[in-house]
Amino acid sequence: MTMLSLFRALADPSRLRIMLLLQRMELSVSEIALVLDQSQPRVSRHVRILNEAGLAERRKEGSWVFLRPSLYAFGSQTADALAQLLKSQDFAEDALIAQSHADANRLHDVRAQRETQAAEYFAAHARNWDAIRSLYVSEARVETALKSMLGPENLGHLLDIGTGTGRMVELLTPQITQATAVDNSPEMLRCARAKLQHLGPSRLNLVQGDFNALPLEAAAYDTVMLHQVLHYAQNPERVIAEAGRVTASEGCIAIVDFAPHDMEELRTRDAHARLGFSDSQIEKLLVDGGFSLEQSNELTGGKLTVKIWLGRRSRFKLTPHLKARKKLSKDTTPPSKKAAA
Questions:
Q1: C-beta of residue 180 within 8 angstroms of C-beta of residue 159
Q2: Whose CA is closest to 194, among 284, 111, 106?
Q3: Which of 113, 78, 129, 124 is nearest to 194 (CA)?
Q4: Would you say the pTM of this structure is higher than 0.70?
Q5: CB neighbours of 81 closer than 8 A, spacing ≥ 6?
Q6: Nearest 10 degrees: CA dihedral of 114, 126, 257, 187?
Q7: Which of 183, 188, 251, 321 holds its CA 20 to 30 A away from the CA of 217?
C-alpha cells in the first residue's frame, strides 16, 4: 500500500464519486451501481481497486457486499487529511462537483428503498413479534428503566450484540460516540441499516457475526448491550465470555431478558433456548465472564417478567477462559524458551 497507489485509485472520476458517497453512508455494490447508473461488474472493478489501494474495505453480509471508507489504514494524520479533502471537494472540477450533488440526491432513492424493504420485512414478521411483546410490559417502560439505570453520562463506544432492528442504538444515540451493531441475520442487519442510516460510517459499524465468536477486537467497547438476546443462546456462558473479551476495562454490560418462566411454547414456536434467567444465574455468568453485577431491576405486568441486569467489567481480571488460554500457552512453550526464561 503506497501513496502512489492511493492517488492512482483516486484518479478515476467514478472512484472519486464512490469515495464521496461513502463519506455519507455505507453502501452495497448494487446501491452504488444504482446511484452511479453503472453496471454492477463495472462498479465491482472500481470497488476492487479502492479496496486494494486501502481507501475502502469490503464486507460480505449474506449474499451482499457492502463498502465503507478505510482511510485510517494510512495513519490517522493522512486519514484526517484525506477525509477533510473529500468532504470539502476543493480538489474537484465543477463538473465532478455537480455530478456529486446529483449522486447525493440519488441517495434519497437508496434510503427510500431500504425503508420499503424494512417495512416489508416487519409486516411479514409483525404477528410473531407482537405476540411475544403482548406477554410483558410495554417496550417504552423497559427502555425508560434501562436508560435510568445506565444514567445520563456518555456511554462511549456501544456494542449492541444481536441488534435486530437497531432500536437500542437508536435509543442511545445521544449518549454514545460510536456504535457497533452485530447480528447473525443479514435480513435484520438490513432493517437496522434502514433505521440507522442517518448515522454516518464514522459513527456506525454494522457487522454480521455470531454472538458465540464475535469477529471483533478485544477490550474495544465501553458499553455492551444484550437486549432480549441471551435466551436464544444454547451456551450463554460462552456468549458472556465473548462479551467480556471485547469489553474495555471497567466497561459496562447491560442485559435485558426474562425472569424464569414456564412458557414452553416460546421454546418450540420461537426458538428460545432458555426460559428466562434468575438473578443468581446471571450473576454467575457475569462473574465467570470477568464482570461484577452492580444492579438489577424487575418489571412486572404481564405473563412474563422483564429483568434488567447491569454489570461492570472487572479491572485487570483474568476470566476462567483467559486463564485456561494462558495455561495452555505456558504448557506449549518450547523447552528451550522455558529454560531461557
A1: yes
A2: 111
A3: 113
A4: yes
A5: none
A6: -30
A7: 188
